[in-house]
Predict the 3D structure of the following.
Amino acid sequence: MKVLVTDPVADAGIETLRDAGHEVVTGYELEGADLLDAVADANALIVRSGTEVTAEVFEAAPELVIVGRAGIGVDNIDIEAATDHGVVVANAPEGNVRAAAEHTVAMTFAAARSIPQAHGRLKDGEWAKGDYLGREVNNKTLGVVGLGRVGQEVAKRLDSLGMDLVVYDPYINEERAAQFGAELVDELTDCLARSDFVTIHTPLLPETEGMIGAEELEAMGDAYLINCARGGIVDEPALAEAIENGPVPGAALDVFAEEPLPEDSPLLDVDDVIVTPHLGASTEAAQENVAVDTAKQVLAAFAGEPVVNALNAPSVDESAFPRIEPYLDVADTAGRIAAQLLGERISGVEVHYEGDIADEKVDLVTASALKGVFSPLEYEVNAVNAPQLAEDRGIEVTESKTRQAEDFQSLVTVTVKDGDAELSVCGTLFAGDDPRIVRIDGYRVDARPYGHMLVARNRDEPGVIGLIGTVLGEAGVNIAGMFNARETIGGEALTVYNLDERLPDDAVERLLDDDRIISVDRIVLDDADNGR
Ligand SMILES: NC(=O)c1ccc[n+]([C@@H]2O[C@H](COP(=O)([O-])OP(=O)(O)OC[C@H]3O[C@@H](n4cnc5c(N)ncnc54)[C@H](O)[C@@H]3O)[C@@H](O)[C@H]2O)c1
Ligand SMILES: O=C(O)[C@H](O)COP(=O)(O)O
């Protein structure tokens, strides 16, 4: 597999991929047409915040399986476009948290004591001792906006340095805040107004973009602003104005709306603004952590295993994966057969689980069933984009479970529907790893699902199976296996054949010419040979 890496990541990550036998190509700072060219045959793309992974990139990358973000923020990746193209997006949400928190603490002190300004003047030969009267953090209030992973680590560190903590985060509860010795408040402006230092730790989302504007800066009053989260959350011109003309005394910023080099930011000209070039995650330990975590997720995606930090794929518990993995194929196959047999527009899909499998978290199995249902229709469908595809097409997907399974340890039934028409296919595993289709449209069968199958419905009369055998034989199509099921003697029967190749059209017509044959469906279970 080819892995393209477009932002600098630690060697340990690259070695992890090379040791697993993959080709790793680095193209730091690739953009525009060069990026589109480079990604054309890539199976994985690894980025940090420097690469904009747009819908165009996904268009240009038909082989792409995963985008690995060696870090936390994914605001530079069009996740919706990734999902549409069936590409997993995964970040590394743990490895640089402490580095980001430490940098935030460092920036807090740098702002409180004007360290960079004093440093600069002394280097220029000036002893400006009288110009800097700093602010202690001890006994002051820290406002934390966003008490997630980084916010929590910052809170712990500054709490231990004697600060009182007040938190604004609409997605956590009071108990959670209290675990960090913090008081949770309902209003952002309340949090800002009570703080001596405000630190931002939310993701950049439509909801948080421009969240700290003129009104909020006014509410902050005499508080320093620290932003090591994302540029764009703070309105930069409003911040420059609030520092130059009051009330805000200063700010420390690691991130900017425009990166790299925010040339147009008015903040670069304001003396009481301390800046670093997005260094929050730039420690050896953090870079090694996120690079290796990302490489491991790429390897998991290549192996078809759960990608632990996938942001757009059905979630799956890593320890439960071995128990559900064999059912992914069963569900996919049942979905493929059901969709091909119904042969109509599909307006609903129901996936029903019985027995042991009903105890598991089955999001990924349901996604596999949907993949199977859509496979005969769509080229680029996989378990990542199948649920989205169902939603986009207004197809209602339902999932149900019962603990009891009549005759099987576990059973997965995929039912496809269009209006009043519906058709169910049940699959199971024999001996834990031998997939079988055990019911088709209510008929009990025992069919091995692979390659080309033929499903014939016929009147249950003597000579019909002979007729089918003769027609297949004369068409030169070998029968590898066969199972016949019937409702009642002389009623309707259903026969499933495993064939070594596709039955030609004229042979199908010959069968249908006989009025004992009700229907003949050719089912293809291999993507590579489905007649398209
Ligand atoms: N400067 C750096 O190098 C650096 C390093 C690491 C992380 N980061 C950035 O730090 C930020 C936080 O990362 P994290 O890992 O802690 O993320 P996280 O997802 O663990 O936490 C984010 C928190 O923000 C909260 N939140 C969401 N919307 C909010 C809103 N409207 N108002 C208030 N709170 C809201 C969430 O509930 C959550 O608790 C991200 O933007 C990330 O990209 C920057
Ligand atoms: O979100 C992150 O992980 C940080 O902002 C780090 O970004 P970087 O990997 O571009 O340094």
